[in-house]
Every structure is written in C-alpha cells, then in structure tokens.
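Re: folding output
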Amino acid sequence: MIPRYTRPQMKELWSDKSRYQRWLEVEILALEAWEILGQVPKGTAQAVREKAQVDPARIDEIEAVVRHDVIAFVSQVAETVGDEGKYIHYGLTSYDVVDTALSSLLRDALGIIQDDIQAMIDVLASMALKYKDTPMIGRTHGVHAEPITFGLKLALWYEEMKRNLQRVTAAKQDISVGKLSGAVGTYAHVDPFVERYVCEKLGLSPAHASSQIIQRDRHAACVAALAVVGGTLEKIATDLRGLARTEVREVEEGFRAGQKGSSAMPHKKNPVGLEMVTGASRLMRGYAVAALENNLLWHERDISNSSVERIILPDSTTLLDYTLHRMTGILKNLRVYPDRMLHNLNLTGGLVFSEEVLLALVSSGMKREDAYALVQSLALAAWDGPPSFKERVYADPAIAGRLSKEQLDECFGLERALSKVDFIFERCGLLVKPLR
C-alpha cells in the first residue's frame, strides 16, 4: 500500500515492481550459491538473470487462483525463464525470500530518511545561528517564565534531531539482516552458505537465529524509532503553532502567492502545514503500536503480521519521508518577527525577572524565605494592574535598603539572563570555542 503523498524516490522503492525485483534478486543469488555448492547446474543463475521478467499483473492473475503471493511470483518468473525456471526457489521457504528482501527495502528506506533528517538538521543549525541572540520569552505551562532566545529554541530541536538521526541509524543497522534458513529456521533443506552468500551480496548480515521469519522485534524497534522522530516533528509543529497564534504572532508559516486560508474568511492565514505534521505524527504512533503487536506470533510463525506490514512498513517510511520534507520546507520559509518577540517579552512589566530580584536579595543577606515572600507579594500585585512589577521593585523600601539602582538595573537586563547562550551553542557544536 503506497500512500498518495509518497515522494518519488520512496514511491519507486515500495512499488510492486521494486518489491518483486528484490524477491527475484534473492532467488538469483541463492541459485549462484547453490551453483558454488554443486547443487544446481552451472550457468543456471546467469540464465535466470538474463531471461527472468517480473510482471506484476500476471502475478496478480496467478495469485487470484493459488491464493499465495510467493507461489504466484515463482510461477510467473518461471514462465519467462524456460527450463532453468525449475530451480528457482530451490531449498527455500517463502519468507526466506520475503523477509530478506524486506530487510533490504527497509534499509534503503531508512537511508532516505537519514538524508531527510540530515537536511532538517542543517536547516535548524543555520536558523539557530541566525537567531542565536534574538531574545524572546520562554514559557512554562504556557505562561511567561524567563527570557530565552529563539536561537536556543532552535538549538534544542537541532540536538533532538541529531539524536533522532542516531536512532534511525541504529534501527537501520538492526534491520539489515537476512535469513535463508528454511521453514522453521533449522537449515534442514538449505545450506547456511547460501544464506551467508545471499546476505553478503545484498549488504545484509545473517540473523544469528531465526524461525520461519526474521523476528519482529527488529521491525517493531524500526517503526518505533520512526514514531519517535514523528513525535519530535509534532513537538516542533505544536510549539510553532502556539507562537503563530494571533495574540502571540512571533512566527508565521509561509504563505504563498495565490494561497487561500479559508473559503469564508479572506483574512485567514492558517498554519496548515504545521497542522498536517501534527496529524501525521499521530498516524506514526499508531503504526508503532501495530508493529509492537506484530512481535507476538504463534510458535515458529503465523501470518497475522503479514497483512499489517503491507500497510505499516511502506506507510510509516513514506509518511515520515514526506513529513520531514514538509517540516524542513516550513522551517526554511518560516516568517520570524523579532520585534514581536521582544514586545511579548516585555508584556508583563518585568515579571519575568522575578528570580533575578530574588537571588539578588538573597545575595545581599536576606533569608530566602523572606526574599521569596517579598518578591512574590510584589509580583502578584503587579499581575492585577499598575504599577508594574519593575516599578514596584524600585519603589519598595525593603529592597531599596539592600540593592542599589545599578544592581536592580542588572536584574532587569537581558545580559545576565542570556549570558550563557554562547556556552550552550558551543556545547551543541554550533559554535567553535575560540582558542585561549
């Protein structure tokens, strides 16, 4: 099942033609190995490679009768080969072919996703540096907390996407295994050399032990890793959607010429791309649940995983490929409003510097409990209206007796609050630490 939003490279990878070609390659490589072992006549593999043609429509016709996709595939290919066709699938069971080919497809799909993640990392790095010193308010529980910079927010996402790249790389390594060990994994009718040969040619490692199938914990871990990436994209999308609200308007999703936001309201510019990312991430988590359920199969195998995987494996990889591409494009074209960020930072009349005042009072010798009570009383009063928190702090005699105007000016300045930004960027590898 290939979703309609699939990008060209991934669409081709998961097409029926591509899948059958991978099956055919496994069959031909197995014949090459059998030739080396002297079990089939010399030249058989080359003859099959030269003559074999894959015809998905014909496979469908045969499958409609035999009700078995691999038998239909083997029969169709054998029709195009001639006498050598009788050796195709020699000593193998269906999932020797299906699972080994599937691993190679998943490996290549994850390779595409690795490239997607790296492209997004590069954009985040560039944006983080651009907005490294752009102050904005940090929010906890949706409420103004303390100053940050927009670059720091981007650096946070940059670091998480680097971890996601590591997760996908690990999943790619974990899934890059094949098996040609027969109906219950005992090699009763296939020499282990055949498995080693085929896997080496495909760039896979033989599974150390298998039943009729490669164990589905690998596939579950793979799809779960993709869902974690989707979760990061959803987190970024939700954060940006919050910042794009009319009352906040610190960022805005790009709006193309000729684009329309509403059939009824001409003024609308909606974050539709970010909302699509949010929805796609929900699907990704659903795929992960299905993949986890697939790990439970009866004894040496049953077929309950097959119908699920025909959907979730192409869908999860193609959906994440598309969503990463979409999010990277949104970031590239994001409209950022630094003046609005600064305006919102100052919206509460200095309340966001309450901890600075608290710590200054503690440093002056006041007990922390007393300092907290004093600063909180001024802050809570300021929430209800003028004078502002800053004005109340400067006018309070208990504070004036301990802190000079210059000390208070430092408390209400951005320099101290943002003094460690470069340190964080250096630790993230976004800034090269200067030689000293």
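--- second protein (sequence, then structure) ---
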Amino acid sequence: MKELHAVENWLKSYNFGELFDPKKGFIKEIKDLVPDPSLAMGNSKYARGGKEVMKDLKLPPAEQFAEDAKIPGTMGSSSMRRAGLYLNEVFRLNKDVRNFRMLSPDETYSNKLDAIFETTSRASVMPSEPWDKDMGRDGRMMEMLSEHSLQGLMQGYVLTGRHAVFASYEAFVQIIASMADQYAKFISVMRNYPWHGQIPSLNYILTSSGWRQEHNGFSHQNPGFIDDMLHKRGCFTRIFFPPDGNSTLAVLKDSLATNGGINLIVAGKTLEHRWLTPELAQKELKQGLMVWDFASDNDPQIVFGAAGDYLTKEALAAISIIKSETPKVRVRFVNILELSTLGVGGCHVPLTFEKYFTKDKPVIFNFHGYPQTLKELLFDYHENTGRFSVHGYIESGSTTTPFDMQVRNETSRYHLVMEVYRTLGALGDVEKAKASSLVEKYQNKLTEHREFIKEHGVDPQEIENWQWTKKS
C-alpha cells in the first residue's frame, strides 16, 4: 500500500484536473488538439487497402521472354536475366500508373537484373553529377545498402495498395527476418477483419545463392530466410525454387498477380541449363511439383526429388551416371517447384503424395536449403519416413570451386550416386559386389576432384561442360 500511495501521489502531481472535468470531459484546449475524424489515420482509405486504392499490375505473358527448351538440358538460360527482362516490361506497362517499385541493396547489376534500367532508374533526389549512372528523381528502383530501410519502405508501399519486388543476395535478406516475421503476423491477424481490404503481396527474389557464392566464401552462404518464412502459418507464404529461366518467368508473373501474401522466389543468376518449356513450366507451377518424364522410368526402384536449380542439376547428373553404369536400374525424378506444396501448417498438402514418391520406394532428396527444413515437412507424411534421405546445405562452405560447394555439403552427383548404389545394393536391386565397386569408383572420383582443384583452382571439364544424357 505504501508503494501504491507513492504512485498515486506521483500521478496527482501532474494536476490532471486542470485538463479534465469529470462532467464535461476534456477542456477545449485539449479537444482542439484532436484531428478532424476525416484526417485520422484509421479513417484514411490508404490504411484500409481494397479496390479504392489498389490497382492490379499490367503483366506481360511469361512466354514473351521464354527461351527454347524443347530439348531438355539445352545450355543458355539465366533465371535472373529472364527476370530482369520481364520486370523491365512490367515497369514499361505500368509507367503511367506508377504503382510498381523494385527495391534492392546495391545489387541490381550484380544480380543480373539491370535490364530494368532501360525503362526506369534508381530513385535519387541528390544533385546529379556527370558520372552518375541510372539515377533520377523519378526512378522506380529504390537501391540503398540498408535492408531494414528497404523492408520498411516496401511494407508501407504495399500496405497502401501498390506493388513491389525486393531482390537481395540470399544470405543477407536474413537481416530483415524479424521485420518480415512481424509483417506476416499482421497479415494473419488482418484476415480476421472484413473492413480491411485486399493488399498486394510482398515479393522477394533471393538470388546469388550460397551454392554459387564460392568466390565470396562462407560469409555469403546462408539459406536461413527460407526456414523463417516456411514456419509461418495461415496459408499465405509461398516459397518457389524455379529450376530454370522459363519456370522463373512463370513464377514471377504468378507472384506479381497475387494479393495478401508473401512470395519467395529462390533462383540463381549464372548461365545454366534449360529444362522446361513454357507450357511445362506452367503445368508444374499449377501442381507445385512434377515428375519429369524425360528423366524418369516406369515402376521406379528409387526416386529422386530436388528443389533448387543447382541441386536439380546435380540430381539429374546423378541419374545420367546411374543410367550409364546400370541401364536396367529404374529411376524417377520429381522436381519440387513450390516447397509449400509439401505442406505448411496444413496448407497445400497434395492428396496424391504417393503418386509422386511411391508408397514404399527409397527417396533421395537434394534440397537447396538446410536438410532439416525439408525433413520437418516430410515427418507427417508416412510412418516409413526411414525411406526418405535428405541432402542439403550443412554449413560446409568456403572460397572454393562451384562443384566443391556441392561436394563439401554432400549434395554432389557423386554423393547421390554412391547413396543409390548403397541403397539398391542393400535391397538386392543391384548385385552387392557391383554396387560396392561403383561406390568405390565414385569415392575415388571425389578424391581425384579434390586433387584437381588444389592444382588448377577450377573444376574439371567433365563438370564444367556437363550435358544431360539419359541412356536407357
């Protein structure tokens, strides 16, 4: 009671009675400070979203910037180059409406998205200098080395009915994980209030991934943002791993057309193989995952699953080796385009899981992120979870060669091949002596690779110039 009286005396020292009459309420001087109801933030149409302030983007067809992929494995596609061309067209089509912005730390050129500068520029209100490049007062690209500022700007922009894309190195978008988490909680609660209208989705492009940060090293290798967003409940977070440029275009268009969610597009910027035609990319986008017939057999003895462009390539390279060494071994390849298809908080769970991964065959996953992330999704699916093996990033990075990143994290084609033969040898699908011999062969390949890169500093030509072939 002594402390309570002390607080009471302290509060009374402010002489609140001078400002408030119990019968009349606040005095006029205080009431005059309250803004007119029409000016209250909660009454602003821009705080409520909906059709009054939100206009859909004009989006070009994804096929407009697609590349020929009729022959799977054709070389020459860069997902970010495709994305840059597409985003430039989005800027052009919506130039008069001015309802689209892109945000990035100082990485637009590095991430191969600089095609947008054909139509827009970096926003800058500073005096212009002769050496300035791609800068202007009306620029729609907001580029600064502060992920926190960019996240806040994007949230405000989207909440007031406009559309945005945040592009970042995968490792450093993790800086704003807490802010994105709070925004996700807001979206979850917002859905309970009918008066709040629809708003566009937050769209992230995560590129310059750890798998191709072999030159910058360990500090630039972190797929953790995937985990943060995957744990959000409410069926509004979607995480995409397009395996090539054509599928990146399909995903980007789809994401820009959605409302009220959070979309993550995880794709590389290097020159890689083309796997899917625009039509197949659309089909896989609709399903979330797909059996790739060109890399699969009927009635498989073992199944590969892959999520991520570089991990997809390694899985397909492993299949190519297996079909060359043991043509009679039957394999299936399942590409996972949308990770949330596998089930996040009860969302998007396919009723035909066994249609893709069979009822009882061993399944080897090659995953872009941490293995435990995918294991959590698979845990609820089957009592026989022991048939699932997951390879992924295991925090084993360095300044090394691209293929050595795969080797260090045990996601390389050679690691996958060895696991296949250990598994099929134990099951009796491959004669044990032959299986052991092949495991030894590819273990020696790993040793040879280590010695080669120590001497030459680059991967051998059989890795650098690998092309897809499936011998039956």
